[in-house]
Amino acid sequence: MTRTPAPNPDQPVRAVSVVSTGTVDIRPQHVRSTGTPALWWLMTTRRWTGPRPINVYVIERHDGLVLFDTGQDRASVTGPGYFPRSGLTGLIYRRLARFEIAPDQTLTARLAAIGYDIADVHTAVLSHLHTDHIGGLAELRRADLVLHQREWDTLGEPRPEARGLLREHIDLPGLRWRPVTPRPVSDPALAPFTAAHDLFGDGSLVLLPTPGHTPGSLSMLVRQPGATPLLMAGDATFDVHLMQDGYLPGLGERAALRASTRALSTLWARYPDLAILPAHDPAAGTRLSASSWGQRTVAESHR
Question: Is the pTM above the cut of 0.85?
Answer without folding.
Answer: yes
